[in-house]
Amino acid sequence: MTVSLPELTGDYVLDPTHTRIGFVARHAMVTKVRGAFHQFEGTAHLDGADPAKSTGQVVIKTESIDTGVEQRDQHLRTNDFLDAPNFPDITFRTTQVEQKSDTDYRVTGDLTIKDTTKPVTIDFEYTGNAVDPYGNLRVGLEGSVTISRKEFGVTWNAALEGGGVLVGDKIVLEFDVSAIKQS
User: What sections of the sequence does the record tag as coiled-coil (predicted)?
Assistant: First the structure.
């Protein structure tokens, strides 16, 4: 059973077991490295009748970065990249929500990585809603945005012998969200 957009109005929490916050980075100018953060919390207030009144925030634990290669993950946690000991959280807080169509939304907010906060705009697709076997109303959203890591103070790199650099500047952040309505 799905419900109409106005019926979705309410407060939600991200379901960490069914949500993925990932990223894609260019490596050695020839391939892509994919990874995800496994520890995060997020809340949202959805206003189905007036989506512009919706709000949300996400706090991601930088220490939870995982690319599937422990040596690389350890390097990403150092000051060369995310400096997890000094900056344990990456945060995103909405400042504007704009409905583009029945299923497309543009969410603008402040993204903080390390000690730098910049506005970013993420295009999301509303993938639907359902009541799960436990009686929870869930909504799904998928979105992504490309950011410049250098703009957030993540500047480490190494030159390649034939030209170019080891790590690309453009990072794609990916969000596959399952949020549960709170009673």
Answer: none
